[in-house]
Specification:
The complex is a heterotrimer, with two copies of chain A (186 residues) and one copy of chain B (239 residues).
Chain A: H1 2-14, E1 19-20, H2 21-28, H3 32-48, E2 53-58, E3 61-66, H4 71-75, H5 88-100, E4 103-104, H6 105-112, H7 117-125, E5 129-134, E6 142-146, H8 148-153
Antiparallel strand pairs in A: 1-3, 2-3, 4-6, 5-6
Helix pairs in contact in A: 1-3, 2-3, 5-7
Chain B: H1 13-23, H2 33-49, H3 56-73, H4 90-116, H5 143-156, H6 173-187, E1 189-191, H7 192-195, H8 202-217, E2 221-225, E3 232-236
Helix pairs in contact in B: 1-4, 2-3, 3-8, 6-8
Classes of the chains: A alpha+beta (186), B mainly alpha (239).
Subcellular location (chains A, C): Cytoplasm
Protein name (chains A, C): Segregation and condensation protein B
GO biological process, one term (chains A, C): cell division
């Protein structure tokens, strides 16, 4: 109980910085397993009483955030930094990179049927996508992959949490958004 | 003030094709090439009448569609009976499915980003009142690292938004058709390559090719190839 | 109950600036009296369960703070051996602040394409960057600049000694965004 409150204080103070499990363990003076268990307990406790705040685990770090239900109130506050949204083209390129990484620009263009350089440059600037290597091919084209910033901004713990790609969207009458969730991963 | 004029709301030719397939509730595995190609061309023509620039990708796709359509009209060759003849539409279908998966994934990401925007974090607290020890001085961080950090940021900046792009010349299939008719009336017969010697850019060449296909469709032009990969001969049959 | 959690979320997100009673009333859509009563209720609730955080009232401003009992953990966190180098992100933010000061966080975010609050907090913590004023704009955002500690650490007598940027980029705010496209692309 005492440690749970200490954890709450620590996560509160660290804010958007977040803390990794091992940092929590060393600050609270507990084992890694206990640290994780405390985080999960705090999460359950805050969830149970539908508090204004919640525990979130993103890309290996734990942090406190507001509960989505109260977003309307927060939007009324003056100084809420809003992330500018991505264009359709940028989202498409990001999707291709996320699922097919590492991938070259030519391969992205091929899948989308259009040039993607501008959208890709935007994603690189926003650090959602980065150069991860070079392809062993003529011209040694750049290979792109997603970053940990991508995980953070999309609230993912790891790439494994990306929804599996549906195998078959093509059949007539299959609505894009009414797919069984257990379809095999591409 | 700058304006961005895009080809309607479509991200590219695959997007447009998917739209047409969905709109007409066509089975993607059995695309009626004739009608889809017609609708696609109609859309491009409409764009032309609005004098909108048509990105070359759209023209390349037009050529692909016409080529698939024509291959489907050809009788299957009897020479290699044993081999399974591939449906000429297959690569296109594969491409469309892949792109549709891409769109699906983009929609998922968009939802995830929207959910994420509902959640607010907090600026880290200033902890230095809690600090009792001195912060260790930086070591190994030089002025050069600072300049280098700025330079790397500079390299990462996206190219400045170029929102208006005005091309001096728009290739229109109708115009090129008229040109070809005029020249074919004089030549009666010529080679494809000779007729298009003047076309230097890819859009110009594709437009010219489309014009020839249109004329063949209208029955005003015939095309002959005497040997595989040999020169394409165009013969005027119109008027 | 619902409004209480909303209040918690709002006070959490607003950070160390806190909110005046009338701001809280207008955000939650309640009267002044109700706003004050909600703050007192939230305080009582957090006190009762000895949470890691507490409600603090200074003059007419309410804010969430960590409970004093847990100060030791915060000390330990502040003490965690700090690396003697800076992360790439921190170095980048420091470069932007050095060359573009005074600058707001939103402007730093804009140039970098990503949120910079974590990196900025590190730099403030290391006393390389500090608040140098407030911008005369809605929300009166904080303006950041480099400190004398920054000059000392980098062996500069004054900011005039900062090396000029290549091609004089960045000297004026505009030049950053008018790059020749052949350079900015990968």
């Amino acid at each position: 109980m005492h440690l749970l409150s200490a954890l709450e204080a620590v996560l509160f103070a660290v804010g958007s910085d977040g803390l990794e499990t091992r940092d929590i363990a060393s600050i609270l003076g507990v084992s890694l397993g206990e640290a994780e268990s405390l985080c999960l307990q705090l999460r359950a406790q805050l969830d149970e009483r539908a508090a204004g705040i919640a525990v979130q685990q993103v890309a290996d770090t734990w942090q406190l955030v507001t509960r989505p239900e109260y977003a309307d109130y927060l939007k009324r506050m003056a100084q809420t930094p809003m992330q500018s949204t991505l264009s359709t083209a940028a989202l498409e390129v990001l999707a291709v990179v996320a699922y097919k990484q590492p991938i070259t620009r030519a391969e992205i263009d091929e899948i989308r049927g259009v040039q993607s350089d501008r959208a890709l440059a935007t994603l690189v600037h926003r650090q959602l996508v980065a150069e991860v290597g070079r392809q062993d091919a003529p011209g040694r084209p750049i290979l792109y992959g997603t970053t940990s910033e991508f995980l953070r901004q999309f609230g993912l713990r790891s790439l494994d949490e990306l929804p599996p790609l549906p195998e078959d969207l093509g059949r007539e009458g299959v609505s894009l958004f009414q797919l069984p969730s257990d379809i095999a991963r591409d | 003030m700058s304006y961005e004029v895009r080809l309607a709301q479509f991200e590219g030719p695959l997007d447009l094709l998917l739209h047409l397939i969905r709109k007409h509730e066509v089975d993607i595995y059995d695309i009626p090439m004739a009608s889809i190609t017609d609708q696609y061309m109609e859309y491009l023509h409409e764009m032309e009448t609005w004098s909108l620039e048509i990105a070359s990708e759209f023209l390349v796709m037009a050529a692909t569609l016409l080529s698939i359509k024509s291959r489907m009209l050809l009788p299957r060759t009897r020479t290699n009976d044993e081999e399974e003849v591939e449906d000429p539409r297959a690569p296109l279908v594969e491409q469309l499915l892949e792109y549709e998966r891409c769109k699906w994934a983009a929609a998922q990401l968009s939802t995830m980003a929207a959910n994420r925007a509902e959640v607010y974090s907090r600026q880290p607290m200033d902890l230095h009142p809690f600090r009792t020890r001195e912060v260790p001085p930086l070591s190994g961080v030089t002025l050069w690292d600072l300049v280098d950090a700025f330079r790397k940021l500079y390299l990462r900046l996206p190219p400045s938004e170029r929102v208006a792009e005005i091309r001096g010349h728009v290739e229109r299939v109708e115009h090129v058709m008229e040109e070809i008719v005029e020249r074919m009336r004089r030549y009666r017969m010529t080679e494809f390559a000779v007729l298009f010697q003047g076309a230097r850019t890819r859009p110009a060449l594709v437009t010219a090719f489309l014009a020839v296909l249109e004329l063949i469709k209208d029955g005003r032009l015939a095309c002959r190839q005497t040997e595989p990969f040999g020169p394409l001969e165009l013969i005027w049959v119109g008027d």
